[in-house]
Amino acid sequence: MPVQLFMSHTKKDKDCCDKFDSAVARVGIKVFRSEFETLESPAWKTIKNEINKSCALFLLVGKELVKAQAESETIKEAKEKWKFTQNWISYEVGLACQLGIDVWVMCDSVEINFPVPYLNNYDVYGIRREITGSLDWIRGVFEKYSKGGTYRLGQLPEGQCTCPFCGAIFNLHSQIQLNTEVPCPTCLNDMWFDKGWLL
């Protein structure tokens, strides 16, 4: 059976999702992306089956997902739409956590603004064409999955980060400049990197 990854996202972040799909396709891994697939009713059952077939879940946090959360605080209509998206993301991440597969939070040129209670991999910058080597790096991640590898906690001890506020532990896959703040994906408090971070 071919290796599969599960993409958790909003379809409004098409550019971010397309970049991800393109990088995965070059490695020959299948990605389950719900707007391209047929979801038989009830949809939760298809989602559950596809996560069961996947070796990792990638939550893609793009501009539209962040915007939907921000607008939901002020606009009633946006709030209703955000609840729908938020509930599906929570369901998908919860299933992946229960299965014990890798859960990635991958931001695309935005700061996460909603908490993700469980993850074991965090990429602050995501697939950005303007950063030299970012596509090569993510292809390397996908190639590792294609060969049966994982990115569990403890496998990269030098890249393991602990939030000083909530105690969340995750592999941090981003180069961070000296004296930079980065939001924790679990509690959203800004973690301070006075010495930077280089994995």
Topology:
Blueprint: E1 4-8, H1 14-25, E2 30-32, H2 43-52, E3 56-61, H3 63-72, H4 76-99, E4 102-107, E5 121-123, H5 134-146, E6 160-162, E7 169-172, E8 180-183, E9 190-193
Parallel strand pairs: 1-2, 1-3, 3-4, 4-5, 5-7
Antiparallel strand pairs: 6-7, 8-9
What does this structure look like?
There is one protein chain. The protein has a seven-stranded mixed β-sheet, with helices on both faces. The protein has a single domain, classed as Response regulator (Rossmann fold). The model has no long low-confidence stretch (mean pLDDT 90). It is α/β, with parallel strands linked by helices and 199 residues long. Helices cover 35% and strands 19% of the residues. The chain is globular.
Amount of beta strand: 15-25%
Total of domains: 1
Structural class: alpha/beta
Low-confidence stretches: none
Task: Give me the CATH superfamily.
Answer: Response regulator
Helix tally equals: 5
The H/E string reads EHEHEHHEEHEEEE
Q: Give a count of the beta strands, DSSP E runs of length 2 or more.
A: 9
What is the average per-residue confidence, as pLDDT, rounded to a whole number? 90
CATH level 1 class label: Alpha Beta
- The backbone outline, from C-alpha atoms, is globular
Approximately how much helix is present in the residues?
25-40%
What's the alpha carbon Rg, rounded to whole Å?
A: 16 Å
Sheet of most strands: 7 strands, mixed
